[in-house]
From TrEMBL:
Domain HTH araC/xylS-type: from-to ranges: 234-332
Stated name of the protein: Helix-turn-helix domain-containing protein
Pfam family, one: HTH_18
GO molecular function: DNA-binding transcription factor activity; sequence-specific DNA binding
Xref: Gene3D superfamilies: 3.40.50.880, Homeodomain-like (1.10.10.60)
């Protein structure tokens, strides 16, 4: 019997276009979502570009037109994205500073009404300043472009502003640093909603493999070792990321990569700086890390679900990558 097609989960995305919009703040993150829609069918991102004016001059002098009015209502489950703005656009200004200030005030007022529990807010670059003026970052961890960190601290004195971060995920508040960091933030959103395999496929398409994680200065294990363009290694890495729990021997991955086991081992060490086995274990530990921080499963169940033969094997692999044991991490992240 043919099973009915599963209805995809739809995530409406409202992209707020401010005056002097920094075009890469919009194009980069939205290319991530466009490609994510092409890579899988479980989740669909739909984009609407909104703002107080039907057109805006951009950072590079290109006019952005067809902007819809700021909506009266944003549905539950939506993602509102605010891009940054350039202080001095390339070429002549399309509007005066006074007109721009009026448009920014309209965005701030709208944000105060539109953002509520059930609606996530993501800011790119200096877009965090508009969210701060609306009081939406108070009590939250957040970041912005390094040049606007002092201004964000002044605008959101009750926020916990973090420097040296590509992005910060604080529940329903997502903030990113300057410009291309918006791509990293949206890859994080795709990984959360559509899975790590999809995020990795999009990252590969955009050629942005070697990126730091949002929460700390360490490299994300899901993207570590991806700063290369070798197709055979990518085939093997994609297979491991899609199913880390499978019994991935060097020979099995060599079949996937269309290479000999000896050649794959050589290529892995040369292009990723680690062995095939080390890479597989890193992916499994990354998956275990998610179970530790986001579930109440005991270590035996986590070991089973992440492809380790025993909790002893999991703890041994974990200790090679983390200074603290899983129990300490779980205690630190436990809610009240």
């Amino acid at each position: 019997m043919t099973m009915p097609a599963r209805t995809p989960r739809e995530i409406p995305v409202y992209v707020v276009v401010p005056p002097r919009v920094l075009l890469l703040d919009v194009a980069g993150p939205m290319e991530v979502l466009r490609k994510a829609n092409l890579e899988q069918t479980a989740v669909r991102f739909t984009a609407v570009y909104v703002g107080p004016r039907p057109s805006e001059g951009s950072s590079i002098g290109l006019t952005v037109a067809g902007i819809a009015p700021l909506p009266d209502h944003v549905p539950d489950g939506a993602l509102v994205v605010i891009s940054g703005a350039a202080d001095e656009p390339l070429g002549a200004r399309a509007t005066t500073r006074a007109e721009d200030a009026q448009a920014e005030a309209a965005i701030v007022a709208w944000l105060g009404l539109a953002i509520r529990p059930g609606v996530r807010l993501a800011t790119i670059c200096s877009g965090a300043l508009l969210a701060a003026r609306a009081g939406l970052l108070d009590g939250h961890e957040c970041t912005t472009h390094h040049a606007t960190i002092p201004e964000l601290i002044r605008a959101a004195p009750l926020a916990r502003v973090r420097e040296n971060r590509l992005y910060v995920d604080d529940g329903d508040r997502l903030t990113s640093a300057g410009i291309t960091a918006g791509i990293d933030l949206m890859l994080h959103v795709v990984a959360e909603t559509a899975g790590h395999a999809t995020a990795l496929a999009v990252a590969r398409y955009l050629v942005v493999y070697l990126r730091r994680a949002g929460a700390d200065p360490q490299l994300s294990p899901w993207l570590e070792g991806r700063n290369h363009l070798h197709p055979a290694i990518h085939r093997a890495q994609d297979a491991v990321a899609a199913d880390p729990t499978r019994d991935w021997s060097v020979a099995a991955l060599a079949d996937v990569a269309a290479a000999s086991p000896r050649n794959l081992s050589r290529l892995f060490n040369e292009h990723t700086g680690m062995s095939v086995t080390d890479y597989v274990n890193r992916m499994r530990v990354a998956l275990a890390h998610e179970f530790v921080t986001r579930s109440t499963l005991d270590m035996e169940a986590i070991a089973e679900r992440t492809g380790f033969g025993s909790t002893r094997q999991l703890r041994r692999a974990w200790s090679r990558l983390h200074g603290a044991p899983p129990s300490r991490l779980r205690g630190a992240t436990a809610g009240p």
